[in-house]
From TrEMBL, chain A:
Annotated localization: Cell membrane; Membrane
Biological source species: Actinomadura macrotermitis
Taxonomic lineage: Bacteria, Bacillati, Actinomycetota, Actinomycetes, Streptosporangiales
GO CC, one annotated term: plasma membrane
Name recorded for this polypeptide: ATP synthase gamma chain
Membrane topology: Peripheral membrane protein
Keyword Ribosomal protein: no
Single Gene Ontology BP annotation: proton motive force-driven plasma membrane ATP synthesis
Automatic annotation (TrEMBL), chain B:
Native source organism of the sequence: Actinomadura macrotermitis
Keywords assigned by UniProt, alphabetized: ATP synthesis, Cell membrane, CF(1), Hydrogen ion transport, Ion transport, Membrane, Transport
Every ATP synthase F1 complex delta/epsilon subunit N-terminal domain range: 4-85
Record protein name field: ATP synthase epsilon chain
One GO MF term: ATP binding
Species lineage: Bacteria, Bacillati, Actinomycetota, Actinomycetes, Streptosporangiales
An example Gene Ontology CC term for this record: proton-transporting ATP synthase complex
Residue span of region Disordered: 106-127
Highest taxon of the lineage: Bacteria
Classification via NCBIfam families: ATP_synt_epsi (TIGR01216), PRK13442.1 (NF009977)
Topology with respect to the bilayer: Peripheral membrane protein
Primary subcellular site in the record, as a coarse category: membrane
């Protein structure tokens, strides 16, 4: 009988776990939609700024800006790792961190010194637990990034890029983030953010750029556009990562709920078996007892 | 009459879009009125200024506070891109006034002060 009670207890606890994971799954599902809307809402700005920048660079041959220049003498290289604040999302963070690790190994092979910059609580605790150094970290907005956060991250990175190695600056900036392809597919991506590579390819084929005048000057426009463009790129990557985080969480929570339901099935069958065995035993005991009584009474 | 196709966008969303007959923006060097048929221009917005849009259908003029950003004019299409942008009609005047006070008492941040004043101006209040 003790086993029966134990099984009932187990079923109860698995059921409540299933309830929680099911709720998490539904929350994540609704947030994916919101995250996708945020990605779509940020698109007009991103498109316009890319177009303006392309126009600027293609009209002004030989234009010069520190953010466009390679700095081969600076060996330090920033690696921005974008993870989530919360767990419960399967391999989402592990994938990002693994990719970041292999990127850093590749950078070391090229004779560069990788400096991590972290976004999201998960990356921060991963680094702290291993007692590893990192230059800067941000958290608290991974599931719903706002532009102000992207601006903070972008400012810090461009500032460090403009410094030399000796001042604690960096010579290149890479980003590891997760691209949202579909509900089922999210890919970890590695991109070099600075120095910027602006190619004519970014423009749709056949589109003709207007011959812009610049107000006040092309250089002033570039000075403003480049940092804004970088911030907009970072914002885009954060939004993509957020959508991926929710998708990963939905999938992880769905399989957790499915597993819990399977487990409930197994336990219920076991419980029924135990109960049936107990009943059978009781009957055979009664029958045995009655037989014994009948035998003794017959004498 | 030709009209301008105007889009006012921030990184997070599109703030306003539609047809207009006049757009007034402020660059570092001064105000610029844009009407249909304007030459292509890419200009830097004054951080903390007001952009005014007069809709083509003759409706109420739209004012918006803009922060760091720029505008581009090309073939009767005007795009105003600002990292911070708020429509005047969405601004709480009381809050904005309080914010200006906070900025003033905090001292020397001119950009923040300009933004706070622009927010009030966009809402149609004195600054």
């Amino acid at each position: 009988m003790a086993q029966l009670r134990q099984l009932r207890q187990q079923i109860k606890s698995v059921k409540s776990t299933a309830k929680i994971t099911r709720a998490q799954e539904m929350i994540a599902t609704s947030r994916i939609v919101k995250a996708q809307q945020a990605v779509a809402a940020s698109k007009p700005y991103a498109d316009q700024i890319t177009q303006a920048l392309t126009a600027l660079v293609s009209h002004n041959v030989g234009i010069d800006h520190p953010l466009l220049n390679e700095q081969p003498e600076d060996k330090r290289t920033a690696v921005l790792v974008i993870t989530s604040d919360r767990g419960f999302c399967g391999g989402y963070n592990a994938n990002v961190i693994r990719e970041a690790e292999s990127l850093m190994a590749a950078l070391r092979e090229r004779g560069r010194e990788p400096i991590p910059y972290l976004v999201g609580n998960k990356a921060i605790t991963w680094y702290k637990f291993r007692d590893r150094e990192f230059a800067e970290s941000w958290k608290g907005f991974s599931d719903r990034p706002d532009f102000a956060s992207a601006e903070r991250v972008g400012r810090r990175l461009t500032e460090d890029f403009l410094k030399t190695d000796a001042e604690g600056g960096v010579g290149e900036i890479h980003v590891v983030y997760t691209e949202f392809v579909s509900m089922l597919t999210q890919n970890v991506q590695v991109r070099r953010l600075i120095p910027l590579e602006i190619t004519e390819e970014t423009l749709e084929k056949g589109a003709v750029l207007p011959a812009y005048e610049f107000e006040p000057t092309a250089q002033a426009a570039l000075d403003l556009l480049l940092p804004n463009y970088i911030e907009s790129r970072i914002f885009h990557m954060m939004l993509q990562s957020a959508a991926s985080e929710h998708a990963a969480r939905r999938r992880a929570m769905k399989s957790a709920t499915d597993n819990a339901n399977d487990l409930i099935g197994v336990y219920t069958r076991q419980m029924n078996q135990v109960r049936q065995a107990a009943i059978t035993q009781e009957i055979s005991e009664i029958v045995g007892g009655a037989d014994a009584l009948a035998d003794s009474g017959g004498e | 009459m030709a009209t301008l196709k105007v889009g006012l966008v921030s990184p997070e969303r599109e703030i306003w879009s539609g047809e207009a007959k006049l757009v007034v923006a402020q660059t570092i060097e001064g105000q610029l009125g844009i009407m249909p048929g304007h030459a292509p221009v890419l200009g830097v917005l004054l951080d903390g200024s007001v952009v005014k849009i007069e809709p083509a259908d003759g409706g109420e003029p739209v004012s918006a506070m803009v922060g760091s950003g720029f505008f581009s004019i090309a073939g009767d299409e005007v795009s105003v891109l600002a990292e911070q942008a708020e429509l005047g009609s969405e601004i709480d005047v009381e809050l904005a006034r309080q914010e200006l006070q906070n900025v003033l008492s905090a001292g020397d941040d001119t950009t923040a002060e300009r933004r706070a004043r622009a927010r009030l101006r966009a809402a149609g209040a004195d600054a």
